[in-house]
Design a protein that fits this description.
Strand content: 35-45%
CATH topology: Ubiquitin-like (UB roll)
Radius of gyration: 11 Å
CATH superfamily: Beta-grasp domain
Strand order of the largest sheet: 2-1-7-4-5
Distance between the termini: 45 Å
Largest sheet: 5 strands, mixed
Number of strands: 7
Shape: globular
């Protein structure tokens, strides 16, 4: 099986996953309000389905002033 490439906190990893971004974030214990998601280089909604051969980037948003 082909694995999905995941980038989280600038760390690349590969994992087998099939489902929505929302489910993936829950599995990784990442709060949706704190991140921006890119799938294959494009900004994506939490309802986007991802799986093998996709590249998912989870980018933490920095708050403050």
């Amino acid at each position: 099986m082909i694995s999905m490439e995941l980038v989280l906190d600038n760390k690349k990893m590969e994992m087998e996953y099939q489902g929505t971004i929302e489910q993936l974030l829950k599995e990784l214990k990442v709060m949706r309000e704190e991140v921006v998601i890119k799938v294959n280089g494009e900004l994506s909604a939490e309802t986007t389905e991802v799986g093998s051969a996709d590249k998912v980037e989870i980018i933490k948003v920095v708050f403050g002033g």
